[in-house]
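pinned: reference chain
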Amino acid sequence: MNKITKYSLNLLFLLALMQFVVGSASAATISINLNDFFADPSVSVTAGGASASITETPLLFSTLLANDPSLGDPNIVIPGIGTTLNFSYDFTEAAGENNEFGVFIIDGATGGSVGSAFEFFTQDSSSGMISFDLTSLAGRTLGLQFELNALFGDVGLDSRVTVSDLFLQTADTVSVLEPPTLLLFFIGFIYLLLLSLKRNNYIQPFKRK
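pinned: its structure tokens
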């Protein structure tokens, strides 16, 4: 291995160490409390707000669990790049009934859906996790609405849906060292760089004539 190669490897190592120390990546998970939502009378939310059960009512065609900033509700999120909204659901449509479970992201300015890419609807019994990538909505004030709808011909009240584990997953963030710590690191970096150059004879020792 020649001196240039050794020098290059040493420099790459030091640069990698600098990147590791100056910035460290970490993703954050932020839980959303369902008790902050408006809930119709037939909606039951757990004390901690981690889950809610939506059942039918004879008084309404649509039973809602919603957070709509346009109506004064607290906004769900003003997302940044790489933010996702996630939740789990379990929808049971009773035999012989005709119901639909739906959820959509609310535009905080208009109160309407932000678009079909941020909606989920099903008329079949099912369960799973739904994730919406909010990157294209970065900077907008958003809400969220869950609904259990009675469709044409529905005559029973036995269908239900449970939503749970509603959370935001943020993109990786960079933690930067405080200035005094950063200064000490750079001093150490320069020292190691000079030491590497000296060991590879790029810096000749000073000799008196």
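why pinned: The first strand starts at residue 23 and ends at 26. The chain has two domains: 3-25+177-199, 29-171.
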